[in-house]
Design a protein that fits this description.
Shape: flat
Strand order of the largest sheet: 1-2-7-6
Largest sheet: 4 strands, antiparallel
Structural class: mainly beta
Helix content: 10-25%
CATH architecture of the largest domain: Sandwich
Number of helices: 2
Radius of gyration: 24 Å
Strand content: 35-45%
Distance between the termini: 62 Å
CATH class of the largest domain: Mainly Beta
Order of helices and strands: HHEEEEEEEEEE
CATH topology of the largest domain: Immunoglobulin-like
Length: 156
């Protein structure tokens, strides 16, 4: 595997610490796939769903946290010993602990989480603050004020 040294970029980038951290994290993450398998679906322009296949995990075994735009889903299953009277001929259901991380864009919030039939579904929504929404700007010049609206300048 090839590694890339980004340290020369860090010397010239100011205020991009989060971007640099994301690049470092992406370079260190496990290869695609992994456990548990998941889907990311776009439901609308500003709405998303993440589904994780967590068969064998109950609500109490799962922990969902968001910190600094990183969604972390952790599953810890209490290991049962083979001394509980069960005799497996084949054990193919993975019940091992896991941790999945998803980097969220700014203003993306987790709205709800639901666990049904072994699928953990998380609904996310991007909420654009008023100060970041498009707004109209008036132009004050010699010929009077003009209002920029939808790409056309109208006399005010």
């Amino acid at each position: 595997m090839r590694t890339v040294d980004f340290s020369p970029l860090y010397r010239t980038m100011v205020g991009f610490d989060r971007l640099a951290d994301m690049i470092d994290t992406a370079a260190k993450q496990e290869p695609a796939g992994g456990y548990p398998p998941y889907n990311i679906e776009q439901l609308g322009e500003h709405e998303y769903r993440i589904e994780l296949a967590v068969a064998g995990f109950a609500e109490g075994d799962l922990d969902i946290q968001v910190q600094e735009n990183v969604l972390t889903i952790t599953g810890k299953r209490v290991q049962t010993s083979d001394a509980d009277g069960r005799n497996f001929l084949h054990r193919g259901i993975a019940e091992r602990s896991f941790e999945r991380r998803f980097h969220l864009a700014d203003n993306v919030e987790v709205r709800e989480a639901d666990l049904q039939n072994g699928l953990l579904s998380l609904r996310l929504e991007r909420e654009i603050p008023e100060e970041k929404k498009p707004r109209q700007i008036s132009i004050n010049g010699k010929s009077g004020a003009k209002l920029i609206q939808g790409g056309k300048a109208d006399a005010a």
